[in-house]
Amino acid sequence: MTQSKCPVCGCKKFYVKNPDDEYDIYEFECRDSEICFEEDLDDDECPSVDDGTETYCNSCAWHDKFDKIK
């Protein structure tokens, strides 16, 4: 299994912001190019993430499009 890492700090956890509320975030890990959201989220709550989705590192200030980490 290959797990994506932040290109700056090596953290393996990321998040995306809710498009309707920028203070609401969804944390995930990326394993084998597949997004694995936190276990307590229902599938219908999870946002859609594609190559162009702005993605943020959970540990440092890095952020870029999702395709940079997968």
Key features?
70 residues, globular, mainly beta, single chain, 0% helix, five-stranded antiparallel beta sheet
Describe the structure.
The chain is globular. It has strands spanning 13-18, 21-31, 34-37, 54-57, 63-65. The chain is mostly beta strands and 70 residues long. The model has no long low-confidence stretch (mean pLDDT 91). The protein has no helices and five strands. Strands 3-2-1-4-5 form a five-stranded antiparallel sheet, with no helix packed on it. Strand 4 (54-57) and strand 5 (63-65) form a beta hairpin.
Stretches with pLDDT under 50, minimum 5 residues: none
Distance between the termini: 13 Å
Our Rg estimate from Cα atoms comes to 11 Å
Overall residue-averaged pLDDT value: 91
Read across the widest sheet, the strand sequence of neighbours is 3-2-1-4-5
Task: Indicate the proportion of strand residues.
Answer: 35-45%
Secondary-structure blueprint of this entry?
Elements: E1 13-18, E2 21-31, E3 34-37, E4 54-57, E5 63-65
Antiparallel strand pairs: 1-2, 1-4, 2-3, 4-5
Structure at a glance:
The chain is mainly beta and 70 residues long. The chain contains no helices and 5 strands.
